[in-house]
Prior knowledge:
The chain is α+β, with helices and mostly antiparallel strands. It is about 40% helix and about 20% strand. It is built from four helices and four strands, in the order E-H-E-H-E-E-H-H.
Amino acid sequence: MGIETVPALVVYSRNDCHLCDEMIVGLRQLQARFAFVLKIVNVDADPALKARYGEKVPVLTGGGAELCHYHLDPERVAAHLGRLGRTAGARAMG
Length: 94
């Protein structure tokens, strides 16, 4: 059996952003149910990202697709991760 990879979700955020903080807290809670790596990228550190996302942050992406922005959509994220078959139990077995 090959090595399974844990999916990554990316939050594009910025410092001093309460919506960003709320999304990250919600994602940390989802990590109790689903196996995924959470990457947090500060858009203000990269002019291209700052131009791309502007005031739209936070933006959550997974698998190259935008899953939600401004507010966490836990049902959509759970559905995305569920399609990948990555529950927390699968992480322990993988």
